[in-house]
Amino acid sequence: MSYKDALKEFFGEDCLLNEPMSLHTTYRTGGPAEVYVYPQTPEGWEFVLKLARTENIPLRVVGFGSNILVGSRGIGGITCSTKKMNRILVEKDTIKAQAGAPLDKVAELACKAGLAGMEKLSGIPGSVGGAVYMNAGAYGQETADCLEYFDIIDLEGRPATLLKSDLKFSYRKVEGLPPCIILSAGFKLSPGNFTQLLAARSQVQHSRVEKQPLEFPSAGSVFKRPVGDYASRLIDEAGLRGLSVGGAKVSEKHAGFIVNFNHATPEDIKILMDQVRQKVKEQFGVELELEQILWGTFDE
User: Fold this and answer.
1) Number of domains composing the chain
2) Is 291 one of the catalytic residues?
3) What pTM value is reported for the model?
């Protein structure tokens, strides 16, 4: 039995073959995943991990695909989605959320429960697992601020719980994280006034609509913030606002975003990323570091 047949037998309709990644990334472009599965239990994850390990098959994990660009040729092996693992539990001053729960929903429930510390994460279009993995943040708040612990399964299929104190969280980075799958996370918050918290959430959402090109598919900030500066400022100063390649362009609304404004191919976006990096380096001597993750190959 092939590994595809084994996955199909185990997961049934939760196993899709040649699934277009344009349906699973916020850029709304990208080639097919050879096999796309939705594990939802520790047993499901153990099955996938063991199969990938014994058959030597590449394994990837995706949440909402809000920080990923997939090449036109697609990706081989097994791609696992956490999207159906989306339960959220609010208890006193703690929130436990599965990896596939929307981070924005956790922020909303925290505000409604009068719990402070996540309101500025409102509107971030990623999953809890993805947010923990890259320490997502906005408006001076980061996922790690209220994180208490998170549950993982390692690549051998062994479950474990990691405390925030076990790792080093910094800007868009987590150091010391072993190769693993994040299954859920626990957040400890502070009591707050829910009216004020909902107002703060509303303000953040309004600011996002005002300042970000939410009318087009994108994957948020393309580059990490350089020390002591902003990628968007450098891109703007280099005169690159509105620069386009095929159906992709540097947003006129926010120069830190690349948007898919007209059926962009993944290669359009990748070429534009490279052009922006090159021009900023030429003008300012700053090497912009990509915040987004590239999967597959890109024909240029």
Assistant:
1) 3
2) yes
3) 0.93
